[in-house]
Amino acid sequence: MEQPEGKERFLLEAAAAPRQTGPALDSCEASPDEGLIEDLAVVDKKAVEQLTEGLISHYLPDLRRSKLALQELTQNQVVLLDTLEQEISKFRECNSILDINALFSEAKHYHSKLVNIRKEMMMLHEKTSKLKKRALKLQQKRQKEELEREQQREKELEREKQLTAKPARRT
């Protein structure tokens, strides 16, 4: 243990020295509290001042070190909070990148759907074109058949006309 110096040593010596409170007290003479109040008034001011200074000088270096340690800890906490905020922003960026990736995959999915729909539409267009051509050919064939039937009827009518008896002309 360290040896006390200065005020601390004085305070320890003052506390260890026997105090005399006036004339010696015999058991039959006076009460034990008789001279105590006067001694307290004299010792009290000096002792309180010296004890206070000793107490302050004893604890003040530790308190200053504690204050510095707390200030350093507070600075470290501020740095840590800043770093933590930066990390949080990085995580938010990662989440937004994941969201962007999800959007791209969704866009790719819908693009493939669109390509499939386009292929189906082109196939349907080709089928309808073929059906239109076929319908046109059928219509032309029917018209041709009708025309041929009409011509056949006309020929038959003409033939019947020619076959019908004509009255001879009288001259």
Q: Could you describe the 3D structure shown?
A:
- This protein is mainly alpha-helical and 171 residues long.
- Helices cover 81% and strands 0% of the residues.
- It is built from two helices and no strands.
- The protein has helices spanning 6-16, 36-163.
- It starts with 5 loop residues before the first helix and ends in an 8-residue tail after the last helix.
- Residues 18-28 have low confidence and may be disordered.
Which helices and strands appear, and what pairs or packs with what?
Elements: H1 6-16, H2 36-163
Which features does this protein show?
single chain, mainly alpha, 2 helices, 81% helix, 0% strand, rod-shaped, Snapin/Pallidin/Snn1
Task: Summarize the amount of helix as a percent range.
Answer: over 70%
What overall geometry do the principal axes of the alpha carbons give? rod-shaped
Order of helices and strands: HH
Q: Assess the beta-strand content as a share of residues.
A: under 5%
Major beta-sheet overview = none
* Low-pLDDT runs: 18-28
Quaternary state, please? single chain
Number of helices: 2
Distance between the termini: 178 Å
Average pLDDT number: 82
Structural class: mainly alpha
Say how many strands there are.
Answer: 0
Radius of gyration: 63 Å
